[in-house]
Amino acid sequence: MPYTLLDPSSAIAMPWKNGGGSTLELAICPAGANLDDFDWRISSASVASSGAFSRFPGIDRSLVVLAGKGLHLQRENGQRETLSGDGTIAVFGGEEAISAQLQDGPITDLNLMTRRGAWTHDLQALRLQGEQLVENDAEVLLLWNAAQTAVRVDAGGVLHDIAAGNGLLVENEPGPLHLQSQRPALLYLGRLKARCR
């Protein structure tokens, strides 16, 4: 099916690769892949304590905070980066040694990963109020509703209501999407593209 609603309440819970916590696997390709052989993966984790990130060699990652006060990232090059639920996005290689420190209590994050050399991705924050047209030229498009209110999506005449804290995955259906929200909303828009093989 070209359209899949992503609901954390029905996602598969599984341990982190380093065993330090658990994550909800929202979508993975190919179906049935594991943490060592996926092409791309979308997940959401509840982080209750500070610690090191799992290593994913050969994987490109984008990470955002969906709920909670925020997260400080200590990068391998010594730089410090702060993520909060305001649309900031961290982009890094899965092999990089990164440690995370909670700013003030647990957080919930959204994690988008693609296998380098096979897929690429771009994740960006989108602030929506009223109506907006979004062009889609990706094999896989992720729309994640980080707002407190539902967002309506018209994809080629097919209507989808994305509840707060849920997402929509559009696969192999290029074309414009019409987004509508009666209140100001923050969405994350991820475009995933396969490299020529």
From TrEMBL:
| InterPro entries assigned | RmlC-like_jellyroll, RmlC_Cupin_sf, Uncharacterised_HutD/Ves
| Coiled-coil region list | none
The record's section on Gene3D superfamilies has: Jelly Rolls
PANTHER family in the record, alphabetically?
A: PROTEIN VES
- Name this polypeptide is given: HutD family protein
Q: What is the organism lineage in this UniProt record?
A: Bacteria, Pseudomonadati, Pseudomonadota, Gammaproteobacteria, Pseudomonadales
